[in-house]
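FAQ: What does a multi-protein file look like?

Like this. Sequence, then tokens, then the next protein.
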Amino acid sequence: MGLNAQAYIIDPAVLLLYFIGNEDAKGIVEAIIEEHAYGYILEPMLADLFQKMVEHFGYTVASSRLEAIKNSNIRLINVDFELIRDAGRIKASNPSMPMVYAYMIALARKFSATIVTVDTRLRVNDPSIKIEYISV
């Protein structure tokens, strides 16, 4: 992958949509899997995704799909002190914003990445942060 490859911060709901066949989600996730783009997801968000996949597919299928994500080109990002500080600063200046949004914005800044989400409530006042919405 080149240095100018697109980078994405992936909302867990986008991965769920990918697994149920959403074409817009498929385009982004497959670009990451095929190494045409970078993809990042915060590790704690995988618990939310796993819970939703268990509800939708059952435990066995959800477990195998979670394993596939772990072994894919989607980079799992740990919460570290720098990320906590950045997300906290974002949340402090936007008190009504859910904390998960603050983390996604902090990751987008860190990796110069586009946030990919289904949640149209996620809005950013910073023109350097791009958001791509996937229709459900």
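And here is the next protein:
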Amino acid sequence: MNQSVLIITPPIVLCTALLTGCLAPKQQQISKSELSYPQNWESNITLSGENHSSQGWASALGGDVLQNIIEDSWSGNPSLSAMTERLIAQGEQATILGANLLPTAQAEITGSRSKRNLIGFNLPNGSTSFTSNSFTSGLNISWELDLWGKLADARDSAEKRFQAGSLDLDAARLSLSGQVSKVWYEIIEGSEQLTLANQSATSFAQNESFVNERFRKGLANALEQNLAQSGTASARARALALERQLNQNKRRLNVLLGNYPSVNLDLNDSSKLTPLPEISHSPESPSSALTQRPDIQAAEKNAEASGLDLSIARKNFFPSLSISGGPGSRSDEFENLLDKNFQTWGINGSFSQPIFNGGRLRAAQRQAKARQAAAWADYRSTALEAFTELENLLSAEQNLAKEEDFLQQAARAAEEASRLSWERYQRGVEGIFNALENQRRAFDARSRALLIRKQRIHNRIDLYLALGQSPLPSQS
């Protein structure tokens, strides 16, 4: 090959590489699609003028006891701890990818000893082999120049996903807070239900004793006695079932706190299903909910990261340039490595351009584009689910309050009817069946009133979570 060919070849290779990079598919980024939503919530509720979101809702809802329980769950729940550690590892990935933008340097010292056979050379001294030593040392520096911003995109994508992971962790904390709070109120409601059931069993037992005494005196028949015994046995069985459910909830709460599933809990036994506080804060419109919920923000960060991944997939078509080299020394004797007379240096350049890869790069870009479209679809799906939750919860906030008022009225009326019915039975103007049935209805009505209060509290907890409000003060 003549010299003119050698001179012309590098420019031809360079032009071919640049042309191949320019033939890369056009990048079609998918932008954030605007959701269609009204300016105001369809379910309007009366809101308090104060905003206590910075102080957290746990203290306002359940006092210091609930706030302390949630704090314990954040520090003790093993699933949350595992998620935190995985997030730390994910953050280090962004650091690793960011380091690719900087040169790398490493010191090296190598040594070798070799032997060569000289049979057939007929050397004068008669030697048939000789050995040699070689020692090198140096500082090897390498650097890939980020000509197109591909390495920066990879770093930024990892940072976006780390931010999404951090928001997912916030969402997990909120979810755990909701689970802990709900189970705590399940325990409180269960304790009140058990107390009510024990009172019911005691009342039925007293009525049974009264009927048995009348039966002994011949004033009541066997049917009345059997009905009274049935009422007592049913009330006692119900109390045992409620106690079993209460113990299950206690074990569940202990597990959420990261403790052994024991029925022993260090709780304030005097806690009651107290009236709900006013809702202190609500988003002005559905659009504001998009900026308050961590799960929606996490979906947005993942979609933005997928856009950077699509950019990387296109930039993989472009050429890459890297340089390496550095100072060093070379000698047959190890002690000469520090001698200036044996110092060396070198520098190497590498230019590479994908030309043929069987369509791998184009497939990777189509894959990245599909993943970006899926990520934005996930974002819209998450937002729509949030809107659905909030509309349902806001609507239920009103309906449950009215339902509780009616059930409280029903409980008071049923208790008065039970008292009057038993007095009529004692006077002999009403049958035992009606008296016992009215007594059962009175306790059922009071039980439903307790249940609806718990459901209102659960709905309020879900509403706080759907609004993205933290249960603890902001500094926590």
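Q: Is there any per-entry metadata?
A: Some entries carry free-text notes. For the entry above: Residues 1-9, 48-52 have pLDDT under 50 and may be disordered.
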